[in-house]
Design goal:
elongated; 13 helices; 3 domains; Rossmann fold; six-stranded parallel β-sheet; homodimer; alpha/beta; 328 residues; DNA-binding; 45% helix
DNA sequence: TTGCATCATTGAAAGGTTTCAACTGCGGTT
DNA sequence: AACCGCAGTTGAAACCTTTCAATGATGCAA
């Protein structure tokens, strides 16, 4: 304790927390001692006394997906306003890692946890809230609505995308993406089907091309499968479950000498930065990523500070951004 | 304390830390009480006693740059092996935020800090180490070598890129990137100049197109400037300071009807995933991103645990990945 | 029966900060 | 001269866990 370097004990605390109640002379004396000794306040002791910290944490599914980093930026924006720091934890699609992080964060008594979970139905999510750490689910929805969540209406996103293609005159369209076990993919596919049915188009003219993951490589593979179809059955447009798949499809299409959008129109999903920067700028369904994060952070802060907090499920509306890949 | 729910006090601690020394009956009694009360071990108190935590932190310059997320993944790999958790903090190119995070992390007594700093020369970096928290600099080098660092030889990267273009027969080349105040950019430019001079080519045939940031938009702008040059002075190839700039340049070139690589060959830097997925797959200089992170994490762990630790500066060698954008 | 070894459990101390009531001087009032 | 108020400072308690020496209980051997 720096006290012995100066002359007092709890006065050090006053210097740190209520400098005005300390005389100039003692204050500078203490401050000098602190720099000399390389004093660093012990946050553990501090927190032990205070009972809570000034930290939020975001447990993210995949830190290398630009979509999530944008969400994180939104969280950070809101956290800053409440003078909170943000720690990002990467679960990397692993339930095990996810649970380990949740344990650690609870034990650290963080103010609140934001999470895009591997499985929104997992028991341990509810358990966290039950034990007193505010928790908000980001970009997923929980079936039993026992927690706050912030998400985007993916069914609507699917509709909007396919309606756009129908408007552009396409009557043979492929849905490219998978696996359907991912909630998002299933919702977007459902929305696509709804729009298709409502336009009165024949069901078998909406083709489903399933991929095993939402990656660029899988998009390329789908392009090859598409090219292999007989011309009269081949779709003239594709709606991809995310932009990575769409970029792969786009690349394969151009590389094989077909033109976008003349031979194949393409719609992606997420509107990541690389969508507009593609060789043919990509039409995509934009989600309000930053706002998603911002809102989630606000909810978690409310849950942490407002005794009258009630759990809320916020749903945002996606928006189509039309570019050359469908407009020609 | 769960003690009153059961019958004892420090026995709870034994249940948690040395379950074998506790009889089955008491153990299950305590465990039951713990679940009933929703008991969560207090990490602050634990740490206060122990004096240190099991956490590493990576203060990253820009969480939305795929390059850094790959580095982070490498760190995580190594951290896992040492049974450490990783918190990612995004300084977002702000010195202020960077310093705030460093303060917080020191106060939390993390095992070690990895950082890609805004300015590797900043005083407060050395100060952190002086106060006892191990710190390793990632992807930058410090002039005075007072700290561990892990970086890639950017001068060599610049040479390799330009040598490749010279090999392909180009005798009029543009270097696109900036500002030069970024150490990386300056090094790559220097390497480019060296290769150029060694090949005996006239100095003014290596044109410098300075951008104000390393973004896709700036790359597009550079493309326009390039197109505006009189044909006989116009470079037939461009070496870009990173892939984002290269992708912008690529997009603008194709959109304006010129062909890559026939009218303009392009080399990028970083080899991010989107480089190979571009409409014309991009030749790029690959850096061993994951290994960068892995090595940095190993160094910081060594500094934290090995009393004989000596500061080390590790430099990796970049590697050219040739693709269609220069090979035709 | 006594003593010993073993196993299970307990109690107290330590770790660094914050808070708060209590104390010390000191100048100013009456 | 006695008192008051006030600014500045102090000491002790509390936060929760871990560790370790000490205690209690049990069974076994002599």
């Amino acid at each position: 304790m720096a006290a012995r370097a100066g002359v007092s004990l709890g006065t050090v605390s006053n210097v740190l927390n209520r400098p005005d109640r300390v005389s100039d002379r003692t204050r500078s004396k203490v401050e000098r001692a602190m720099t000399e000794l390389g004093f660093v306040r012990n946050e553990s002791a501090r927190q032990l006394r205070a009972g809570q910290s000034r930290v939020l944490a975001y447990v993210v599914l995949d830190a290398s997906n630009p979509f999530f980093t944008d969400v994180a930026q939104g969280i950070e924006l809101a956290a800053d306003l409440s003078e909170l720091s943000l720690f990002i934890c990467n679960s990397n699609n692993s339930s095990t890692r996810e649970e380990a992080y949740l344990d650690l964060l609870q034990q650290q008594r963080v103010q609140g946890i934001l999470i895009t979970p591997v499985d929104p139905g997992a028991d341990f999510l509810n358990e966290v809230a039950r034990r007193g750490t505010p928790l908000v689910i980001v970009d997923r929805v929980q079936k039993d609505l026992a927690l706050c969540s912030v998400a985007v209406d993916d069914v609507l996103g699917g509709r909007v995308a396919v309606e756009h293609l129908i408007d552009r005159g396409h009557s043979r369209v492929a849905f490219v993406g998978g696996p359907l076990s991912i909630g998002q993919v299933e919702d977007r596919w459902r929305g696509a089907q709804q729009a298709w049915a409502e336009a009165g188009l024949p069901q078998d003219a909406l083709v489903q091309l399933t991929t095993s993951a939402l990656t660029v490589a899988e998009g390329r593979g789908a392009g090859e499968r598409l090219a292999g179809m007989p011309a009269r059955r081949r779709p003239t447009a594709a709606f991809c479950a995310n932009d990575l798949v769409a970029l792969g499809l786009l690349q394969q299409t151009i590389a094989s000498g077909r033109r976008v959008p003349d031979d194949l129109a393409i719609v992606g999903y997420d509107d990541i930065e690389f969508a507009s920067a593609a060789a043919v700028p990509l039409t995509s369904v934009r989600q309000p990523r930053q706002e998603l994060g911002r809102t989630a952070a606000e909810l978690v802060v409310d849950e942490a500070t407002n005794p009258d907090h009630t759990h809320t499920q916020v749903t945002f509306t996606p928006e189509l951004v039309a570019r050359t890949s469908t407009l020609g």
